[in-house]
Amino acid sequence: MSTDYIDRNLAGKDLTFDEAIELFNLPIHELGRIANEIRKKKCGDTVGFVIDRNINYTNVCISRCKFCAFYAKSIEESYTLSYGEILRKISEAVRQNATQIMLQGGINPDLGIEWFENLFREIKKRFRVDIHSLSPPEIVYLSRKEGMSVREVISRLREAGLDSIPGGGAEILSDEIRKEISNKCTAEEWIMVMEAAHELGMKTTATMMFGHLEKEKHVIEHLFRIRDLQKKTGGFTAFIPWSFQPGNTELYRVIKEPAPPLHYLRIIAVSRTVLHNIKNIQVSWLTQGMEIAALALDFGANDFGGVMLEENVLRATGKEFRPAMADEIISAIRKAGRIPVRRDTYYNIIEYC
Prior knowledge:
The protein is 43% helix and 14% strand.
């Protein structure tokens, strides 16, 4: 049966729902072996990483999702960065060889599309970086605020300098779960944003936040939605699953601890096995730490994400954060017996390290 899973993936054949669910019942070492064999044949032994900075431009958010500890609880706590502050942060990142800038914030009703257009133009005037920014919920909100289609919002932002859209706001793409934890866009709206971006020629990533109220069936529903859109558009460059961090969130009342490392490794392996049409599976050293992230390279992952010179959303949960230096990531990849490569936003190799 395990060989069949490998053959099906490499042949680009979809698993049925029951077949995908069965992956959760396999012994972890067997599941890991399946995913690692797929990874080896599809990706070889190189492991990529990008030098980036994640700038949270505002913590004002009308969504106030139950899983989030970042949004401002009062006017006194709220902030919106000025263009000057954002440009200063980008300048610092560029001096450290950053090639990617991620701008993500809350759903701030005071910021319209022109605010973002002007910002992106200012960034492009000054820096040679990829703007990998905003997220589907932010795009959906802008379309409602401005009274224009999602496609028009993306087109205007792209013309202003937006290069790609990160997969944030996906959480679990099952409205049965979303309505319990989130006040943002629906699963269908998230997919709609990504499909529109892909049709306009823009590449995006996809994510999944697990370890809260979801069941195994919801994880598979999420993966199938990603897989099926990828079959249609081919626009996803990578898939990044990460575990919910409950500290300081409303969900902490029912979920006290994040998912254990073994479950994280299983999710990585299931993702690799189900998503036959997405080449890159990214680890989350930010939530798992370097050792588990490196171990995930033996469970189907082939990318280490970014150094993240700044991060504020997970830090708001009480999770300790410090940026990972490129040398630290390179060392972790080498210790895992792989070949580190620095890449760009589109997973093109910039240099072997």
